[in-house]
Structure formats: C-alpha cells, structure tokens
Amino acid sequence: MTNPQAEELNETILNNNPAILEMLSDKGKAIFFPKKGILAQTAEAKGKKINATIGIALEEDSSPLCLNSISKNISLEPKDAFPYAPSFGKLELREQWKEMIIEKNPDLKSEISLPVVSNALTHGLSMVAYLFVNPGDKLIIPDLYWGNYNLILKNAYGAEFNTFELFKDNAFNIEGLKEELSKGKGTKVLLLNFPNNPTGYTPTEEEAREIVNAIKESARAGNNIVAIIDDAYFGLVYKEGIIKTSLFAELANLHKNILAIKLDGATKEDYAWGFRVGFITYGIKSGSKDLYEALEAKTAGAIRGNISNAPHLSQSLVLKAFTSPTYKEEKQEKYALLKKRAETVAEILENNKEYEECFTPLPFNSGYFMCVRLKEGLDGEKIRQILLEKYSTGLIAVGNLLRVAFSSCPTAQLEELFKNIYEACKEA
Predict the structure, then answer these.
(1) Best CA proximity match to 425, nearest among 370, 365, 360
(2) Are residues 239 and 357 in the same domain?
C-alpha cells in the first residue's frame, strides 16, 4: 500500500503533468520525503528555548560539539561543517547553483526546478535510476559510455542498455539515435553524456539541433521521454562550432512529454573530485512550481533513505568558492591549461602521421579524455600491459580502444606518451 504522503505527491504530479507519473518507476511512485515524524517534529522545535530533538551533540553554548583535532583544520564556522545538511541540500547552495545553470545556459528560457544536492554524479545517477527505472527497463545510450554506468544502472537497478554507435563517419550518429527512439511506443529513458567519457566528444551546433529534433519527434509520436543529461564535464569545450551549453537547456522547454534531468556538479567542473557535491535538476515544458517541488521531494526522499544527506562541509566549501571574487578567474586559468593539453594532443597526432599505422584517434574536442582506436589485430589489453611493463605508462583499455586522460598528464609528457603507444603497438 502506497504511503499517503507519496500518494499526495503523485496526485500533484498527476494534476500538473500525467506523463511524468507514467515515467516514474514503481519505487519512484512509492517514495516521498517525510513531512511528519522525526523531521517534522524537529522542524517545529527549531528556535525554541529548549530543543532536545535533533540527533547531534552541542556544546554548553549550543554551538556544534566538535573535536579540536578536526576543527583546527577547518576555517569555516563549525555550524557550516559539523551539523547535518538537509536531504535536499544546503538551500543557499541550491539557489546559487540554479543561478549558475541559468547564467551558463542563456538558451534556457523556461522555469526549472531548484537543484537537489547529490553525493556527486554517481549518486545522482543512482537516485535518478531509483525514481525512473524499473528492472528490465531499456535505456537508450551510445555504445561508448562511462563503465560505471554498468554498476549503477545494470547491476543496481536491473536496467538493460539499447546501445547505438556513437560515431558514424567521424560525426555523431544521429541515425542510430533516431532508430533507437523509433522502436516501440511508451516511456523511453535516454542517457546522454557530453563531453563524453571516454571519447572527449561534444556535438557540433548542427548535431545538437538534430539530437534535440529527434527527441522532440519521438515525443510527438506519442512517447514519454526521460532525457538524462550527464553534464559531469560541462564547460570544458576546446573548439569553435561545438555546443557550449547543455542539451538540458533546449530539452527543458521542448515538449510536455519530455522530462529533462540535468546531472552535474563541482566534481569535474570545479576540480573538487573528493568533495562529492553534485546536483539533480528537472525541466519540462510548462513545469509548475508545485510539480517541481513534488519531484524535488521525491528526490530528497530517495536521498534520505539512501545516504541521508550529502556532506555539509563539502557543500559549504564549494559555496564559498562560488561566491569568491576570484572564482571565475581561477576557473578560466584551469580551463586554459586543459585546453592547451587537448590542443597539444591534436598537434602531436597531426605531426606524426606514422602513428596511423597502429592507431587512429576518435573525434575529440572537450572534457578530460580522448581515445585512439587500435588497428585490426591489435589487442587493447595486451598493449596496455606492454605500456605498463616496458614503458612505465598507464592507460585505460576498453576493447580495441585506449583511453588517454590528458587531464592528468603534464603537457611535457604528452609527446612521449603517444610515442610509447606507437612503440608498444609495434612490439605487440
């Protein structure tokens, strides 16, 4: 039997957009953020002279009780580090991130939800799967994807992948996407990740228009579309003619049957990998405040029942950074470094055509990575082992691809890196 609080949220969603209720998984329909019980009673006691509700420890002056061996290493006020954060995330941070999404995506014309804070992208994907994926559901996804999708979506939630080749003639394979979207009728879950891990590819402006149109046509044909946009590497685009905004901006106001979900965070964008601060944001054509609040409540309920809340200290630290007067200048400096490395990789490959005897690069223009495809007869794992043992060089092998994380390789080492790959291939 569904909890009355879940039923109330479902009723709100139904009254605002019935398609979204159809999109929710069984768990998604059943989840809610508890407005009663411990959380409600704690909220009602806030500000009272005597408050013995919340399960933390306080000093005699009612400041957070903490160990000096920890607090002496933190310049933030104890109140911004030690207590629990809300399951929705720290409100000031959520509001700040929403403003930043709007600023970074001038094409975003519609109202969107207030982002809910996740424990970075992996957790955000897991919570979205909780809400929108039932066991056996088929996800539409390019064939070159982050390997952790398997654990998050297949192993944990029982999803199946309907893949299409990412590239056709060294361009985004729009025909492959259209083909997958045209199969059958009903709710379709689509997962797109740009800049793409592992390839470091982001669509051109024309390709992006074609992707958006393909999704819109599928919705017009009577399908409900859950469009999950993994924006982990958002903003790291190094060439002209490539989309510099998120597909979320177009999809969020495209059709009443297309729910766009933006997953992003400070992890890669702000080089704070271990902080584990990510965001889940919703957008749909004519989305109302009530609808978004219901989706936010379900998301926070899933988080509450999973990890309780994302770390308060990390949220406070990134919020401090976002409001720093030097923040944008610092971001530009780090962007320039990664852009230089990507350009250096392109120059090395252009100036060493002999490498094509052994491998060819896949298209890349953004993000942290690029890939080379080995010539027929060469085995990626064998090459990887030779590189480790004879050339003191580490790469990731994915079938007959080698993934190069130029983000983690000093510029001065890139020339040697690709020479080592070439020499290892000749030895294999």
Answers:
(1) 360
(2) no
Domain tally, the chain: 2
- 3 state SS of 31: coil
Domain end residue (candidates: 303, 322, 341): 322
Backbone angles phi, psi at 11, to 5 degrees: -65, -40
Q: Which of 342, 339, 368, 337 is nearest to 200 (CA)?
A: 368
Q: How many CA atoms lie within 13 A of 364 on its CB side?
A: 31
Any residues with CB less than 8 A from the CB of 248 and at least 6 apart, and which? 105, 108, 229, 231, 260, 261, 262, 281, 283
From 272, 305, 322, the end of a domain falls on 322
* Helical pair 4-16 and 289-304, crossing angle rounded to 10 deg: 150
Q: What is the pTM of this model?
A: 0.96
* Domain at 357, CATH number: 3.90.1150.10
170 with 119, same domain? yes
Structure tokens at 198: 């592992």
Residue 197 makes CB contacts below 8 A (sequence gap 6+) with 145, 146, 232, 233, 367, 368, 369
Domain that holds residue 383: 327-427
Beta-bridge partners for 191: 228
Are 416 and 394 within 8 A, CB to CB?
no
388, amino acid identity: L
268 and 348 fall within a common domain: no
- Token representation of residue 384: 């990887």
Amino acid at 68: N
Burial 97-131 (b: 16+ CB within 10 A, else e): bbeebeebbeebebebbbbbbbbbbbbbbbbbbbb
Q: pLDDT tens for residues 33-90? A: 998 778 778 888 888 888 888 889 999 999 999 999 999 999 999 999 999 999 999 9
